[in-house]
Every structure is written in structure tokens, then in C-alpha cells.
Amino acid sequence: MASNKMLRFVTVDRQTPEKRDAEVRTDDFGEIYREFAAERAAEQAGRCSQCGVPYCQSHCPLHNNIPDWLRLTAEGRLREAYDISQATNTFPEICGRICPQDRLCEGNCVIEQSGHGTVTIGAVEKYVTDTAFDAGWVPAIAPHTERAESVGIIGAGPGGLAAADMLRRAGVQVTVYDRYDRSGGLMMYGIPGFKLEKDIVERRNQQLEEGGVTFRLNCEVGTDITFDEIRDAHDAVIIATGVYKSRELDGDNADAQGVVRALDYLTASNRKSFGDAVADFDNGDLDAEGKRVVVIGGGDTAMDCVRTAIRQGATSVKCLYRRDRANMPGSQRETQNAEEEGVEFIWLTAPAGFEAALAEAKTGGAAVSGVKVQRMKLGEADATGRQTPEIIEGADYVEDADLVIKALGFSPEDLPTLWSKPELEVTRWGTVKADFRTHETPLDGVYAVGDIVRGASLVVWAIRDGREAAEAILEKLDAKGAVIAAE
Ligand code: FAD
Ligand code: SF4
Ligand code: SF4
To answer: What separation in Å is there between the alpha carbon of 119 and the centre of ligand 3?
Structure first.
């Protein structure tokens, strides 16, 4: 039965944690939302109506037991709330920060449908876990028994790390291989600090390392080590390499200086937040300071680029997207944040090429000076029901630009070729084929999780895949008879 601290949605309005003012927050790369105060978290959690069939839970990819941890938070029983929350989610404090809640848990909260504004689920999830870390309730990874079996995980993003956490807690020996110098995948080098501060990710890396996970960083599979070497060294292998091939643009001067890829731009910016030397940033190429910036795309990556450019001190930041606001793939919350920070959206526009000037170039080639923009209108709906953008003839114009950032999405690298492993089966989109429940590929003992299977997706889905693959591996190892490590 719901306690008397619940069902307060009629008398208490929905509130998110305080958002820093746009003029202040754009001076740094810190997160834009402050933490809930204890009373506010309890009050907001108490708005939940404790549904018998909680749609929030069924629309959370991890099926988090949301009503239970909301009730415990409302009752001030935070340690129990944390225990329940972490039972289904490896990184609740990360999901609480960066899940697009409006499309997942909160978007399906019934209170919204009764006109009272959805329960603030993500911010409470973040608050509960941040509090647990501060209070020392987050247990170290300390397996009861050390097992002799080992699993090699290729890719230290959320998918690989979620699997590593679960396997290691079960006593399995785990080695994570990653080509980057830091663990965390896109949580470290893709997503900017104003959405997810890097010490939140580093805290998890440290926990895994202290718990006995071995990290082999700066190790590119296919170059520094072969896939077969990894397979030979372990009882099972998980491929969690994400998707990194940027979709490109055609047209005049598409390769001009100053036309750059979103991930190169964001990675450089994230590296600078660690104080790293980044040649292409330090020479100005990937730095938006003092430039007229145009970002092309309407997804979350585009939103991260425009907001990064604002923080770097661009003189203007414009975003071109070929559909309208209602039809953009990015989260409405992030678009609103970008607008507050001074980004101008030019809806229904697409690039047809670039203008470039030799005189502007630092070395060889020509430097971009503008984007040739085509105006679009929305036409007939396609098979998926989405209206197709159509060019309005004769309405082209040039948008001046010193830096153009292409944020048009990502596709998988060609793993069978890069890893000399033609037997690794991929779909026609290049994603790795794997069983949707166990995540095992047709190669015995080889599993695949996260974006490399789903295509560009979300952190929460990668976590779910990683956890499910770890469970399937443990089941298989147990079926063979667990091997306990010698003392
Ligand atoms: P990744 O996080 O991509 O990690 C893959 C790892 O594999 C990387 O560390 C890479 O270095 C390593 N690797 C790749 N190839 C090799 C190799 N050959 N050898 C060794 N290592 C290799 N999702 C959200 O939920 N919320 C957001 O707000 C959000 N914002 C995003 C913003 C940007 C700019 C981008 C690009 C993505 C965003 N996403 C967001 C999506 C999310 O980051 C991904 O869906 C998620 O990180 C996928 O996890 P993964 O473990 O599959 O792969
Ligand atoms: Fe919502 Fe994401 Fe948390 Fe699930 S993991 S409850 S979708 S914020
Ligand atoms: Fe509570 Fe909303 Fe979930 Fe119902 S749908 S249990 S009201 S958070």
C-alpha cells in the first residue's frame, strides 16, 4: 500500500533540480543541473502514484523498479532506495544524468497523461546514487570466490564496462581492451562535461580497477593485438566497440579546411578538459573560439556540438536541420538548453556544398567560408510515416561560416575486414549479428553488445546488453562446471 508520503502529484508541482543560468553555465563545462536537496528529492519522489502497472518501469530499458525506489526516497530510506536502484542498473548515476527520460521512463509516466507533469525520475535516480557514493554505501567489487575462467572485453564503453562489472563480481577474471588511453568510451570522449562530468565516469573506472578488472588501454584490436589472440587467451569474448564511422557530406569543397567531423571536435574538447595536448585543437583547427560556427544535423550529437562551440567562445553558432523542430531526432530538452545558451536553429535547411577561399587557408587547400544552404519543405510521409524533406527550388543562400561541424550520425567500422575475421557475421548495415537475448554471435563464445549491434543508440541500452551478455556467459560457464582459481 502506498505510504502517506506518496500520491502528492495533485498538490506538488513537477520540479527538476535547479538549472544554472545560461550566462553563467556557458562559461564552463560543468554540468548544468545542480543536485536536488534532500527535502526536494523526497517531495518530488512523493508525487508518484505507485501505479499497479508502472509504465515508467516497462519503458525503462533496464526495467528499473522505479516506484519502489521513489517510495523509499520519499520516506527518507535512501540506503534501501539505492540498493533497489543498483540491483538493475550498473551505472544509475550516469543514466539519471543522460538518459533521454522524455522518451523513456518519464515520457510514459501516467501522471503526465492526467495533466500534472511527469514524476522527475532521472534526477531522483541520480540523487540516490550520488548520495550513496558520498555516504560510502557503494560497495567495492569483492567477489566471494575467484574463478579461473577469464573473459576478454573489447571496448571500454558502457556496454563493455557493465559486462565487466557483473562478471568480475561473480569472480571471473576480466580484461578490457580499448584503443583509447582512458576507459569510458563515448561517456568519456563523446558526451560533453556539461551533460556528464568526467569524474563521474572516472569514479566507476577506478571502482572496476580496484575490483580487479585489468585494463589494457592504448590497445587497438586489429593493430596492436589480433582478435584471434584475444579469443585464444579467454574463455569468452565480448565485442563492445561502438560505432565510429562518421556519415559524410558530398558537394563542392566538402573536404575544405574547417569542415570537421563531430566526434573529432567533441573528443578534442573533452581531451582538453583533462589538460591533454591536442595538436588539432591547439593549432586552432578544432577550436571554435572567435569563429562563426555552423553545425549540420538535428540529433543529440549536433546538440552537443553547438553547446560546446558556445562554451569555446564562438562568435555565432547556427544549427542546420533538414526537417522542423517537431521532427528532429534530438531530445527536446537538449534543444531547449541549446536555445537558452544562444544557439540559433535554422529548421528545414540542408547543405548543398561549401564555399571555400584559398586566401583563408593556413596551409595548402582552401578554407571554408560558407555553407551553400538549400531550403526544404516537408512532403509526403514515407513508409515509416515520417514526412520526407523536399528541396524548395531557387531558394538557396549562403550561410557564412569559419567552422562547419558535420553531425550526421555514425555507422559501424568494417570489423570483419579490420580484424581479418570474415566469419564474424554482420548485417547489411555492418552491425554485428548477435542473439537478441544472450548476445552470442554465431562464433562460439563470442558475444556482442551495445552500439556495434544496435547501431548508434543509448548508454542505457548498452548497459542492458552488457548485463545480459554477462549473465549468459556466467550461465554457460556454470553449465560447464565453475572452475575455482588456485590459491
Ligand atoms: P562506446 O561507448 O562507443 O565504446 C566503445 C569503445 O570501444 C570505445 O572506448 C572505443 O575506443 C573502443 N574500441 C572501438 N574499436 C576498438 C578496437 N578495434 N580495439 C579496441 N578498442 C576499440 N547516449 C545517451 O544515453 N545519452 C546521451 O546524452 C548521449 N549523448 C551522446 C552524445 C554523443 C556526442 C554521442 C556520439 C553519443 C551519445 N550517446 C548518448 C550515445 C551513447 O554514448 C552510446 O550509445 C554508448 O556509449 C554506446 O556504448 P558502447 O559501449 O556500445 O560503445
Ligand atoms: Fe529512466 Fe534511464 Fe533511469 Fe531507466 S535508467 S529509470 S530510462 S533514467
Ligand atoms: Fe510513479 Fe509515474 Fe511510474 Fe506511475 S508511471 S509508478 S506515477 S513514476
So the answer is: 7
17-34 burial, b at 16+ Cβ within 10 Å, e below that, comes to beebeeeebbeebebbbe
- The Cα 458–Cα 462 span in angstroms is 7
Contact assessment for residue 446 and residue 458, using Cβ atoms and an 8 Å cutoff? no
Confidence of residue 2 (pLDDT cuts 50, 70, 90): low
Q: What is the pLDDT of residue 359?
A: 64
Which residue bears the cell 574547417? 258
What CATH number labels 247-410?
3.50.50.60
**Spacing, Cα 98 to ligand 2 middle (Å):** 9
For the chain, give the mean pLDDT.
Answer: 94
Point out the least confidently predicted range of 6-10, 67-71, 408-412, 439-443: 6-10
Ligand 2 first shell, C-beta below 6 A = 60, 62, 64, 66, 89, 95-96, 99, 101, 104-105, 121-122, 125, 460
Q: What are the tens digits of pLDDT across the range 441-481? A: 999 999 999 999 999 999 999 999 999 999 999 999 999 88
Q: Could you read off the pLDDT of 239-279 as tens digits, one per residue?
A: 999 999 999 998 889 999 999 999 999 999 999 999 999 99
Closest CA to 60 of 110, 122, 112, 124: 122
| Ligand 3 centroid – CA 334 distance (Å) | 23
CA of 26 to the centre of ligand 2 (A): 27
Give the ligand at the shortest distance from the Cα of 118: 3
Ligand 3 binding pocket mutation candidate from 6, 9, 50 (most atoms within 8 A of CB): 50
- With the most atoms of ligand 1 within 8 angstroms of its CB, the residue from 106, 228, 411, 459 to mutate is 459
Residues 6+ positions from 213 with CB-CB distance below 8 Å: 141, 164, 165, 168, 174, 175, 176
Q: Are strands 259-261 and 403-406 parallel, antiparallel or unpaired?
A: parallel
Q: Measured from the CB, is residue 195 less than 6 Å from ligand 1? A: yes
Give 150-243+412-486's CATH code, choosing from 1.10.10.10, 3.30.1330.10, 3.90.770.10, 3.50.50.60.
3.50.50.60
Domain-by-domain residue ranges, the chain?
Answer: 22-135, 150-243+412-486, 247-410
Tell me the ligand closest to 96's alpha carbon: 2
Summarised one tens digit per residue, pLDDT across range 400-451 is 999 999 999 999 999 999 999 999 999 999 999 999 999 999 999 999 999 9
Q: Is the pLDDT at 38 greater than 90, yes or no?
A: no
Q: Do 150-243+412-486 and 247-410 share a fold?
A: yes
Instruction: Report the CATH superfamily, name and number, of domain 22-135.
Output: Alpha-helical ferredoxin (1.10.1060.10)
Does pTM top 0.70 for this prediction?
Answer: yes
- Measured in whole angstroms, the distance separating CA 224 from the mean position of its chain's CA atoms is 27
What is the distance in A from the centroid of ligand 1 to the CA of 355?
A: 33
pLDDT the model gives residue 360: 63
Contacts with 25 (C-beta within 8 Å, 6 or more apart), sequence order: 19, 32, 194, 341
**Does 93 sit in the ligand 1 pocket, CB within 6 Å?**
no
